[in-house]
Specification:
By secondary structure, this protein is α+β, with helices and mostly antiparallel strands. It has helices at 44-53, 118-129, 139-142, 176-185, 190-193, 195-198, 247-256, 270-280, 309-317, 321-329, 358-367, 397-411, 424-432, 453-456, 479-490, 494-511, and strands at residues 24-29, 58-60, 66-68, 82-86, 97-104, 144-151, 154-159, 210-216, 220-225, 238-243, 261-262, 284-299, 372-374, 377-379, 387-393, 416-422, 439-445, 514-527, 530-531, 550-551. The chain is globular, with a radius of gyration of 24 Å.
Length: 553
């Protein structure tokens, strides 16, 4: 899925110093968040930092196993902590089933010493459900019909449906004692007034192993150990995250020693890492982690040029994705046929695939009403030129190269493509409000067996009326897709669910609201002295286990 005075730190170690003598770890990444509030926007840059300062209730580990981070035991139907129930009659016929999930929270404290309690859960849900709060997607919050608080650390959630992922409780908690007065004063202004942005170094905003003590916008974030953290003690006293949006400059800082380690999830591009390995393999460990990261191009379906699915199919067939993968990524990033990775157990190989076929692309464009060509550019019967803009993130050399290749290839079929590169924060904001005009190239990071509801369901289209909640940025509406998404979520039997996932992939491939490019491989270039970094390859990044990172000279 995007975020961002030179601060030079020299780690001085004597030969006799123990391995733990390195108190400070300097990290690098390419983006800076537009907000630090964990509920607002969905930038990877923000989650990489917030994973060090807080924890979701549950997360998937490096083996794609769901584990408790804030809860003490994963609630399941088998252990009796989750159960299917009959919901009260809603006046529309009744007979609906839902679920109750019992949760016991660990003994944890915010950085100001205030306990993390079920009241924080209740407030987080209140913010998530409010139509004006500005959360990235409100759907998951609205599904929770009731929160029955037993005491500070025990509560029961009542969910409005039966789902296979009922115990994937990915709530990112916010402190009620700090944020609730701000929210209650004006929910519509909450996203602009949140203490996460107006008082970012307040210790009460963190309950993870670290807390933020300094933010220099666009330059660095400094974190120090959180004295109230009740888990495993972290090895580094301080972590500095430097924001260097140009990937070439990021590599130069790594080589010069200004940075100890570049975060694998949001740092060096794959081609950089491959070249870097040939020159420096004696000093670093290299891990190329196949990931559930979906590089793609959103199409703005409100744009008349893109409304006909034959046009979208033509654009995809005019792009030689295999050649791009071969030349830029040494064939390490497989071409994507849809939003579900072959690494995911729900992947289906039967959906329609689009080979590189510019001849068929030209034929489809002719059929869609763009048969006339003047000065090398197609136009329709109204005389409208097929000239369209693709927006992507600035500073990412590979994305910029891919955009240029696509521009050249689309020119061969009569489409004029204009490239617009924006700073990641600006790009993210324009996506959230659907302000891109034609095409938008970026990546989603998925969780294992994740139903792509927030990106494909018609109820997830961000609008002013819903407070720009949702991640269906193309504006895709399909009753057939909505039905398949809803059914997949509700199906507990994995074999039957796999068939529904196959439907999702088939419908997506036919309609192409999103043009699939590649499934990414994350390159982790880890200094040999840095231990404990374990790539996950999915939504829950390696920094969720930052307390296990250590330096061993």
């Amino acid at each position: 899925m995007i975020r961002r005075a030179l601060f030079l730190v020299l780690a001085l170690c004597t030969l006799a110093a123990p391995a733990s003598a390195k108190d400070e770890l300097v990290l690098g990444m390419t983006q800076t968040p537009g907000t630090w509030n964990p509920l607002i926007s969905s930038m990877l840059a923000k989650s990489l930092i917030s994973n060090m300062t807080a924890r979701p209730l549950t997360a998937y580990d490096a083996n794609s196993k769901l584990v408790c981070l804030v809860c003490t035991e994963l609630p399941t139907i088998e252990n009796g902590k989750a159960r299917v129930i009959d919901l009260p009659d809603d006046g529309k016929g009744g007979g609906k089933k839902g679920m109750e999930v019992d949760v016991e929270m660990r003994d944890m404290k915010w950085g100001d010493g205030v306990p993390v309690t079920a009241n924080d859960v209740a407030f987080t849900l209140e913010v998530g459900k409010h139509p004006l709060s500005g959360v990235a997607s409100s759907e998951g919050y609205k599904r929770i019909l009731k929160l029955d608080i037993k005491d500070d650390r025990h509560f029961t959630m009542t969910i409005d449906r039966v789902t296979f992922d009922y115990n994937s409780l990915s709530l990112n908690l916010v402190p009620a004692h700090i944020e609730k007065p701000i929210f209650d004063a004006n929910p519509a202004e909450y996203r602009n007034k949140t203490a996460y942005d107006t008082d970012s170094t307040n210790p009460g905003l963190a309950f993870g192993p670290y807390r933020i003590v300094e933010i220099v916008p666009g330059s660095r974030i400094t974190l120090e150990q959180n004295a109230s953290w009740t888990g495993e003690k972290p090895h580094f006293k301080r972590i500095v995250v430097k924001i260097i949006e140009n990937t070439a400059a990021l590599e130069a800082n790594l080589l010069s020693g200004n940075i100890d380690y570049v975060l694998g999830e949001l740092g060096l591009s794959l081609d950089q890492a491959l070249a870097f390995e040939k020159r420096h393999k004696d000093k670093y460990d290299f891990i190329y982690k196949p990931a559930l990261i979906y590089e793609h191009i959103d199409t703005k379906l409100d744009n008349d040029l893109l409304a006909d699915r034959r046009v979208r199919q033509a654009i995809l067939m005019a792009i030689d994705r295999k050649a791009i993968s071969d030349k830029l990524f040494e064939d390490k990033q497989p071409v994507a046929d849809g939003p579900v990775s072959p690494l995911d157990p729900m992947y289906s190989p039967v959906a329609r695939q689009y080979p590189y076929d510019p001849a068929t692309a030209r034929k489809l464009l002719d059929e869609a009403g763009f048969a006339d060509i003047k000065n090398g550019v197609r136009q329709n019967a109204k005389g409208e030129r097929f000239s369209i803009e693709i927006t992507t993130t600035a500073g990412n050399r590979v994305r910029e190269l891919v955009a240029q290749v696509i521009q050249s290839q689309l020119r061969q079929v009569g489409i004029e493509l204009r490239i617009k590169a924006e700073p990641p924060r600006i790009f993210s904001e324009s996506l959230n409000r659907r302000q891109f005009t034609g095409l938008a190239m970026y990546a989603w990071v998925e969780q294992p067996e994740g139903v792509p509801r927030s990106t494909l369901h018609s109820e997830e289209i961000p609008t002013a009326a819903n407070g720009w909640s949702g991640q269906n940025y193309p504006g895709y509406r399909s009753a057939e897709m909505d039905k398949a998404l809803d059914a997949a979520e509700r199906q507990l039997d994995s074999t039957k669910r796999r068939a529904l996932f196959a439907d999702i992939q088939r419908i997506h491939a036919d309609d192409l609201p999103v043009l699939p490019l590649f499934f990414r491989v994350d390159p982790f270039v880890i200094p040999k002295a840095l231990k404990g970094v374990v790539p996950t390859g999915h939504l829950n990044s390696s920094t969720l286990w930052i307390e296990q990172w250590r330096w061993e000279d």
